[in-house]
Structure formats: structure tokens, C-alpha cells
Amino acid sequence: MDSRTTSRRNFLILSMGLPLGAALAACGTSGPTGAGAGGGASSGGGGGSKATYWYLSVQPQEGVRTRAVEQFNKANPNGQITGTVFQNDAYKTKIKTAIGAGQAPTIIWGWGGGTLRTYVQAGQVEDLTSFFDQNAAVKDRLFPSSFGAATIDGKIYAMPCETVQPIVLFYNKKLFDKIGAKPPESWGDIMDLVPKFNAAGIAPFSLGGQSRWTNMMWLEFLFDRIGGPEVFQAVFDAKKDAWSHPAALEALTKMQELIKADGFIKGFSSITADSNADQALLYTGKAAMMLHGSWTYGSMSTDGGDFVSGGNLGYMNFPPVEGGKGDPSNTVGNPGQYLSISSKATAEQKEIAKKFFATGVLSDQEAKEWVGIGSVPIVKGADSSFASSKDADWLKFVYGVASQAKTFAQSWDQALSPTAAEVLLDNIAKLFQLSITPQQFVSNMNAVIGS
Fold first, then answer.
1. Sorting pLDDT into bands at 50, 70 and 90, what band is 384?
2. H-assigned helices in 148-240
3. How many domains does the chain have?
């Protein structure tokens, strides 16, 4: 893909067409709260020869991250990294507070995009452009598209890491067989399936609605499938009244029609994604389908008994909406996960972090481990190791979605500033609870465009 300057215009939509160069990444999920070896609460203070690193605690991803640190520490006894883990939602609050107070960890895990932009504007993270100039081989082995959300005004402020993870429509094959139905090929099919599953005592869709960003994935696809990526791009570009686009109102209306038709599990607004309860509803047969990040495949494999290994999990890209303008190959998510270096860290801590970026991040061993848990690392040629994996079909599917998508849009809450994203998530929650109308949603969101 062409190199990306990541201005506000071109940083959201990544046209695809590279060797797996396109990617999505976890919008975020998490498991139990825990702590790694040591408290990593401060970066600019003590520690001397130790750098600190905060990251998410979801399993099995946490294990891969932790082992990467352990492997680096073993190879670098004089420059150690101390890790601390957090649940997803708790992490977002904790890291924002710590950075604002000048107490950030040396290495800041994140999703890039709008949040990274705020860090850059406040001078809170290091400019890594010269690092990548001096370490061209480090950059060249990663998917070019992964640098889009790491780049602000032409400069690179984060190290892309981990995996490509599209948002996927999962389904329970056994439940479709039970009612004699086929997976949906259109939005109309989705709406037709809702009463059929409800009549059989099965929730059509699982949803961890309390987490809010899980609801957002539905709107991201509906906006795209109905109006194309240009609809949200206008919001991202801060165009006046961009949320008033007819396709936006149609998407919001269709969303509430699905909710009113009992498309989701009862009580979805009190279910959290952090607990993986939404995934459990799918693999235990209580819900037939689930729209979620592809990172959930690993935890469903681990926690779902023989649900995945027995061939009961189906998956597909989100279907088209009748009459919609969006290309059905389009997908949504994030282009990678990202590691930045706190500007408040000591010179020694910064050097440890840079050495980790150059030698520890996505090492051959770590890349193999990502494949081992059913994920596609953002390393060129990663597909060469798929054939020997028990998850080969899944990995090929993810590879195909990522490499064949005409356009790929970054998740809304990561593309926007934290301020605008919070208003967005709050209004999405209200939309799903039916406490505001589509028009009220539009009015509320138009008021914060560009904030």
C-alpha cells in the first residue's frame, strides 16, 4: 500500500490491496484484572535499568504478551522490562490518568488513532520517525498498512505490534441446523431470522452491551453497507452536520428496528464484554450469532469446550444491506495494536524500549505464538505458517478478509478524539436502550463534531 501521511483525511480509511496489508485489530477486549511482575506505575521516576509496560489482561493474548517480555528480559539482563496488566475498560481510564499526571509507563500499549493524536499534541510520547529510519528492517517486515494509525502529521509515534483482527459475524452452526436455516446473506435475511430463532427459544444475537463499543460495531457496518465509508469519513473530517447524512439516519433506524424486534439477548445492556459472557452465550447455544472482533476466536477455542474444535463455529463478513452503496468486501476495525514510548521516561528507559521494539516485538517466536492462538500477526509472510495450524481455515479466512477488502475503516472510538469518542459511546448506549431516537442521536453527535 502507498505510504500514509495520516492527516485527518487519510488516516481513517485504508485502501487495501497489499499482501495481507490491511488489517484490523482488536478494538479491545479483556479478561480478569491482574498484575504482572511489579507495579509499573511510574516511568519517569525510579527503576534505573528497568522500563515499565502496561497492557491488557485478556487471555490467551496476555500470555503471548507476557512471554515476549520474559524472552526479552532473558536476553537483556542489564535492561529489563516490568509488566503490569489491566482489564480493557479499566486500562483506558488508568492510562489516560497516568499520562496526564506524568506517571505513564515507559511503554504505552494502545490502539493508535485519535487517542495517539492527543498524546502527540500534548507532547506525551516520543517521535519514533528517526528510530524507524535507522532500523529500516524493523519497519519493512511489518504490514505497511499497520503504520497508518501510528502516524500523525507525517511522523511515526508508535510501534505497530501484535495482530490483524477484523470484526466478524460469528454464528453457531448447530443452532442454524436446529431451525433449518442458512447464515444470512443480506440485512433482510438477518431480520427474517430474528423471529425464527426467538420462536425456538434462542436469542438471535449475543451482545455485551454494557461495554458500549460492542454496540458500535453494528453501526460501523450499517453505516458502511448503506452509505459507504464516506459517511463516517465526513464525521472524521469534521464536516458540519456530517451525522445528518441520510444513510446515517437509515442505519440508526435499522439498528433500532432490530432491537425492537428482540434481535438481541434479553438484558444485553447489563452484559459485559470484559467478562467474555457474550462469547459464552454463543458457544453454549443460548444465542445464534454474535458480531465481534476476531480476537474472540482464541478465547472461544480455549473456553468453549469442543465448540470450535468440533467445527460448530461459523464465521463470515457482515452481509450487504439491500440497496446499499457500500462494497460488501469492506470491513472495519483497527490496523494493529501500538506501542509508544513516554516522553517522561528516562533516557535509559527509552533505550530499553527501543531495543524491545527492534528485537523483542513480533520476534519469530512471538509471531508463531499469535498464530498458535488463532490470530494473524502483522508480519509479512505470516501466512506461510498457517498450513500446520489447527486453525488454518480460520487464519486463511482472516487473511482473506484483510487482504481482499476494498476499504478498511478504523474503529470509530479509536479514530475520534477521546472526548468525541466518549460522547459517541454514550449516545450509542442510549440508542440501543431506545432512550433516544435516531434524530436525537444525530443532533447530539453533530454538536461535538471536531471536538
1. confident
2. 173-179, 187-199, 213-227, 230-236
3. 2
Helix (H, G, I), strand (E, B) or coil at 236: helix
Same domain, 425 and 286: yes
The answer to whether residues 430 and 209 touch, using CB atoms and an 8 Å cutoff, is: no
Output 439 or 335, whichever has higher pLDDT.
439
Domain that holds residue 405: 13-165+335-410
> CB neighbours (10 Å) of residue 123?
10
Closest residue by Cα to residue 370 from 27, 85, 22, 60: 60
Distance CA 175, CA 417 (A): 40
Phi/psi-derived region of residue 441, left when phi > 0, alpha when psi is between -120 and 50, beta in every other case: alpha
Instruction: Note the helical H segments in 200-271.
Output: 213-227, 230-236, 246-260
Question: 172 with 73, same domain?
Answer: no
Instruction: Return the pLDDT at 8.
Output: 30
C-alpha cell recorded at residue 448: 461535538
340-380: pLDDT as tens digits: 999 999 999 999 999 999 999 999 999 999 998 888 899 88
Give the integer Cα–Cα distance in Å for 69 and 435.
45
What pLDDT band is residue 301 in, cutting at 50, 70 and 90?
Answer: very high
* Cβ-contact 290, 207 below 8 angstroms: yes
Residue 246 in any domain: the answer is yes
What pLDDT is stored for residue 146 in this prediction?
A: 83
The pTM assigned to this predicted structure is 0.75
Rounded-to-integer distance, Cα 247 and Cα 28, Å: 27
Residues 6+ apart with CB under 8 A from 278: 206, 207, 208, 214, 271, 272, 290, 292
Q: What is the overall mean pLDDT for the chain? A: 88
Do 408 and 440 touch, CB atoms closer than 8 A? no
Q: Do 233 and 340 fall into the same domain?
A: no
